[in-house]
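Forwarding the complex inputs:
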Amino acid sequence: METERVHEFEQFFAREERRVLRLCYGVLGDRELAQDAAQEAWLRYLRYIEGESPEYSTPLLVTIALNAARDWQRRRRRRLEELHPDVPDAPAPPAPERDHDLVAAVRSLPEPEREAIFLHYALDLPLVDVARVLQKRTGAVKSILHRGRAHLRSLLDAEEGISNGR
Amino acid sequence: MDDKEERFERRLRSLGEAIDREVSPSDPGLLLRLQRAESSQHRPRGGRARRARSWYYWGWAAVLVVALVAVPYLRHLGAPTPPASKKNGQTTQKVGGQPIVLGSIAAVDFLDVQDGWVAAATGGYGSPSAVLVTKDGGTTWAERMLPGGYTAIALTALSPEEAFVLAQQTGQGQSGAAGQAVPTAILHTTDGGRTWQVVWSEAPGAQSLSNGTMAMRVGLQFFGSRGYANVGDKVLGSSDGGKTWTALTLPQGVAPVHMDFLSAQAGYVAGQICPAQAGSGAPAANCQAVLIATQDGGQTWSTVFTPTEANYWSYSDAVSFANAQDGWFFLKDVETWQGYLYRTQDGGQTWTLESSQVASGRDVAGAPDFVSPEVGWLPNNAGAAPFTDGLLVTGDGGQTWTEVGAQDEWSLSGVSLLSPTVGYAVGKGGDFQEAFLARTTDGGQTWTQVLPSPAPTSQVDFVSQKQGFGVGLPIDPTAILATSDGGATWSVVSHSAQQVEAMSFLSPSQGYLLAVDPQTPSDGALLYTQDGGESWQQTATVPMPNGQVMGPYFRFFDARQGIVETENYPDVVLEATQDGGQTWTEISSQPTGKGSYQQFAFTSPAEGFMLTTVPGSSATVPSTVTLAATSDGGKTFQTVHTWQGQSQGAGVYFLDARTGWIALEQNPYGANPSTAVLATQDGGATWTTSQLPAALPTIGQNLMLQFPTAESGWLLGNGAIYRSSDGGGTWQQMP
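Prediction (whole assembly, two chains):
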């Protein structure tokens, strides 16, 4: 890298490293897999912008990171199927049981809601960027988020009820 | 919002931090490995990836092989969706006969109800800045340009002819990467913006103002010949009307964030003291907010207030005085994202916590602006909603704050108050976060969009060459608009209380809206108008079972028959009604997945077309775009044409069974994506291609294509409207 570009990339990396890792962990739910996927996402991103002017784009990086995380998720499923062919499908993430299981609660949501909530709330992406990453209209993203929030609230309310009943 | 709802919101807001507690960046070697990989085109090695499982090595080995064989193509890896639009957030405004693009509006300053100044970027970061000047309350604007290489971030007007602009020197070889320090400059005009003189500037490489610093916090103030400027990490003073500037000496360790001077001699600076280094307004660990004051024009300073309520990672946001006695100091606790508003009524001698309920988000920067001891405005950056967006108004000196206006997703960068009821706000809003200038004359209850001129941003539906309807403004995503001159001018006819999903008009008077109440998204509302959109009545509820999301296609052919596209993830579902929307029946279900998607265009309840895009996973796997026709109301489709290559479907419209158009995003993964419109006169067997004049941003499915006649067509994408009068052969962007 040229010196100036190295500096710019360092700043971009410093700002976005946590964001990429949050997304990968949100999708994968496994610390080590998330770190592997995050590394691959960064590499893909660098390859993607190779030869381009150094205009670092958060939505593009997030798009690539989401795809990388999805790929790792698919690899993991295939690996599980190879190791355990009798098991029909990987089990859904467990419903939250403890107060700090907010992440698990979000991970238990259907895929569109899960990804939209992670992108919007955990990564702080504005709606227009979430729509761009998910290839949906912003209106559709709003609807997905509203539904996801409703699902999540019912999950967390149930959790609260369980806690209070103990 | 009740307590339970607020707890839920607060908890949801902490999702990112919750993940951080479970996994946080702990691989200091990753950046180094990436840089080595970038410079040597080698794969990164080591770190915790080295400890991964054996199949992981095989995965990397495969990537390495692909990299060596097909490095030129690897830039497409993992990006089956297009890159961010470079035109996102830009709006156009016709000034002096030619439309200019408003990338963002940095500042507004109205001297009175007639004379106002606006500083705006004409494009993305580093683009030339325009200064717009009005002498008739915003009805017409004169466009003046700043010298090249300067991007305006703040403006203060002294008269209709004289103004100062604080600018970043983006032409000094700076790339504009966020967070990068960019030298600043002050420019001065005395001829209404026709010519500008640089009266102060930093040398290239100066570290005063980061690109990420909110422009709202910088500022310029004048009292006769005495001027003050907050340029990031220093406060400047001028004693000769702004001709020369020198840095004021602040107390040791105080980094200024925001200033408010009451007179040529008396003023306040809100700042922070950080143990490691003085920041530039960005939150820093263990910083302590502090408020300092001067009574002698900045020669000496004293600390007047050090808040104690938020000691952890707190930092100052703003200070504002309505008069010598009444002032407010706003700070933020970075750890809890709580905003604290303090008030003094004795000229800063004592301070009381007025409110700790003021919304304050991650990168939200509200600078309170008070026009009287009672009335104040607090503009907020939407940032990462669901924080309180837009504008908060108080009428009781800050004890209570109320959201005002239709401000869904407003990100305000500044306000200019002329009185407790009249004021202007600048920022971005709407589905595409477009720049706007809005005016209120009732204390913020209702707003009028001044810039850009009203035009729909999310929906258009033309019933003739002249008459059409649209949805969405930057200041109001659910505004219903109408035009009777072919889209040259638009007026707001009504406002939907619900989120508008789609629109279909049968005539200049009769039309339907499909809307969703965000609180009950499982039920879509079918609304009907008989008066050209001025009033709407709900005629039916469209059931949206759990899992469905309204799609973009919705059309009524008469008062009884209609088709709607919904989504039952991951499938797309077509539903039809024969009774005016009272009941809906599923026609067919189209599978999606792996990034593929469908778009529809029906010419009658029986006949229509479906455009399916299956994007390739890399450059070696081209995208496939297929046009298929139906003659049984969407039950079955037969392929009529297929395109393969680096294109994706962006829109489709058919006037009849033979005459139709499609829009294709070309090279959406490349550096220069563009949009082409293809036309057919034989039902899709053969096509002619036209290119839009300027590269329309790649916006995926956010594009609408409409031809009410074989010659007249409109294309709406990312807030910009293009028109063709020759059947799609040529296109012009509408002002």
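Chain A has two domains: 1-91, 93-166.
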